[in-house]
Amino acid sequence: MAAWSDLTFDVLEHISSFLPLPDHYRFGAVCKNWRLISKQRRHPPAPQLPWLVLEDDKKTRTRKFYSLSEAKHYSLDIPELHGRYIYGSSHGWLFAIDLKLTGILINPFTRKCYELPPFPVWDEYNATTLIEFGCYTFEEMQTLLVYKAILSHDPKEKSDFTAMIMFGVKNEPAFWRPGDSSWTVIDGLGYSMDDILYYKGNLYLVAACNLLCVVDFECKPKLVEVGIEIPARISVGESTGIQRFLVDFNGQMLLIERTGHSVENYKVITDGFVVIEPNLEQNCYNTWYDIDGYALFLGRNACIHVDSCRLPKCKKNGIYFTHPTESQSPDEFGFHDLGVFDMITNKIMGTFYSVEKVFPQVDSPVWITPNPW
After folding, report:
1. ∠ at Cα 313 (308, 316), nearest 5°?
2. I need a labelling partner for 186 at 20 to 30 A (CA). Which of 57, 167, 174, 363 fits?
């Protein structure tokens, strides 16, 4: 019987095509031949559940991640992320900001990195001026300056991608493309924005009142209302709509309203979600009561959806959510409101992550789909 180390390269390549990301590295540690196959990286990692990006460990200067599929933590040495706050995730890339309020876009698994220009003026003042006035500390401004960021495309696949952020008190939109020296601010409508989505070549935003807008790029970029009349609140019962998400779900736009209630110390606890599909052609919308067996992962990331049938540990028709808080104490920073909502039973099924108190939680958890090659 042949030894494992003597398996032919074509057999080893076939085996590697079934491996998720962590197993690729374990595979390459077996022997020299297996390591050669692992380094060729001819197959992308097998599908797995998204990871959570957690806190920066100041002692080891590593970034902590949590694999939902394995229920296991990983500490990765990514010097570019040390001391930085994560404010967005899209296509496997992270947006991060340091205490000097400079931003980067980085793939944490390849360490390919883009330096971002200074952020736009915030509420008629730049961030440094507000700090000098004593309104905020650098630590506070680091978490408040940008609410969310997404990408139009994976930078590994399209070099002329667009990065989009929501910044300032009203989460105003702005965009940047490689080669630009500054962010281009999009003229708003005076509403506070909740989410941003790149969908079929257009940039959409949704306001806190469920107002759906699209960016008109002719002349000076500005927001224009989409003519769909959506109630300011699409949920029912005692819960209040506290946040909205826009999702590109297999080519269909979805608008999702998170409902919840307030408790002590200004905390907000999630009660559930309502999912609708805006029909941009007929100017109406339909309510969804399931998502075809898929699962959604919502938070400060560009929404991720996965096919639960391919991932046995994933909750079918489940909405996995994190809480993008900026105001909790260090030991609860966004970790008080994590869970899985079942669209079929219309109930929250509990949490997917037990908070460890070993390290202070100073970053809100953010979903990411590893995109190493």
Report:
1. 35
2. 363
The answer to whether the beta carbons of residues 81 and 108 sit under 8 Å apart is yes
CA distances from 305 to 8, 48, 152, 366 (A): 36, 11, 16, 15
CA torsion 110-111-117-122 (nearest 10°) is 100
- Tokens in use for 73? 């933590």
Of residues 52, 84, 55, 90, the one with CA closest to residue 68: 52
pLDDT score recorded for residue 289: 96
Give me the count of residues in the chain: 373
The tokens for 356 are 């460890």
Q: Is the pLDDT of residue 297 over 90?
A: yes
Which H or E run includes 319? Answer: strand 318-321
CB atoms closer than 10 angstroms to residue 173:
25
* pLDDT band of 68, cuts 50, 70, 90: very high
Tokens of 321: 């959510």
Burial of 186: CB neighbours in 10 Å, binned 0-12, 13-18, 19+: buried
Both tokens of residue 63? 């970034």
pLDDT band of residue 102 (cuts 50, 70, 90) is: very high
Write a three-state SS string for 281-295: CCCEEEEECCCCCEE
